[in-house]
């Protein structure tokens, strides 16, 4: 029933996909975090129009399927902007825009959960808004939302398998190719699944360490 | 030094302060007392613009701080504020709490700010706590650090908003002693407090608020022995 001998020569090929999966995930998480922070700051600001735009943006990206967003950006960008977007660019762009929407809500909640007294203490010392946000409020907010951010990163790592639908050679896509070559389903997908699982576990372990470091002030 | 002129403040339909006028001279120590909900804290918070008066004006050294184009950040740097619940920055060590604003806001060099911070910690009796995080301090220690943090900005005025109300009884004294030392050094202070003995001993003047109005203003000796208003009499009967 199982025949791992046949799959062995293809294992390096599947492993090759790790690089793409990690690149898409890490780039999207970092860019999505920056974009999400900007959106969150806009949402708690007093600038009406920007606020409305940020809320509408979040609503659209949370209200439509990710696979549709990916397909849309990959295939519609050349048509609309005349720019021949690469698979990798489309993948990172989609995941950044999408996770930015989710992360912005998490960060917004985290910022609002910081004690009002912290804002007042900073203001009373004459600290300007920007510096107060960067040095006083955001560090405290991030500590509280770290578990949620880790969840978002893990979700993104797994959802990145969707990039196989536009043919980007990640773990999933390479497993698809191996399947098509040797006509066996079980072994390539088992290996792909194990790879995702190990990466998620590593991430969880790293996050634990980070959390411990942030909690040293308790 | 501080001149409060016909200040009113309302939150929506709720009138919290009603036409308050008074002055605080350089080096004066003024205790603001009154029943809860009388607007004491709101009045104090108007002085550093944590609340914006609905009507009236406030002047500091002749400059109107309630003017629309006043530089709020600059004004606040001159005024220290100590809160009931301390509000130390929990993610910074005690030393960093003290040096953060001088370095980042005033542009003092890190070395100078640290030297100053260590001086201040010695002054409030907490030299050995420079490198610990606020979570490791007792309430009284936190409040002394909070006072030192305000002083690190070298303010000309210090505002205290019920600085001992959140403390266990045995820690009240250590904080009041620091405040007394500060008053003796000539600092201009406005203190919202329920510590009547402290107010009597340290303040030059008592402002008694009730229902958002400044009902009575008098030196402590006069206020505590022969209050003029009926409301103050009733209040003192309950407090003393």
Automatic annotation (TrEMBL), chain A:
InterPro entries documented for this protein: AA_ABC_transptr_permease_3TM, ArtM/GltK/GlnP/TcyL/YhdX-like, MetI-like, MetI-like_sf
Keywords: Amino-acid transport, Cell membrane, Membrane, Transmembrane, Transmembrane helix, Transport
Keyword Iron-sulfur (UniProt): no
PROSITE patterns associated with the record: ABC_TM1
Membrane topology classification: Multi-pass membrane protein
Keyword Transport: yes
Domain ABC transmembrane type-1 span(s) in chain numbering: 18-207
GO cellular component, one term: ATP-binding cassette (ABC) transporter complex
Protein name listed in UniProt: Amino acid ABC transporter permease
Lineage, opening ranks: Bacteria, Bacillati, Bacillota, Bacilli, Bacillales
UniProtKB/TrEMBL annotation, chain B:
Lineage: superkingdom: Bacteria
Keywords, sorted A to Z: ATP-binding, Nucleotide-binding, Transport
PROSITE patterns xrefs: ABC_TRANSPORTER_1, ABC_TRANSPORTER_2
Record InterPro entries: AAA+_ATPase, ABC_ATPase_HisP-typ, ABC_transporter-like_ATP-bd, ABC_transporter-like_CS, MetN_ABC_transporter-like, P-loop_NTPase
Record protein name field: Amino acid ABC transporter ATP-binding protein
Transmembrane residue ranges: none
ABC transporter domain: residues covered: 2-236
Gene Ontology molecular functions: ABC-type amino acid transporter activity; ATP binding; ATP hydrolysis activity
Signal sequence annotation: none
Coiled coil: none
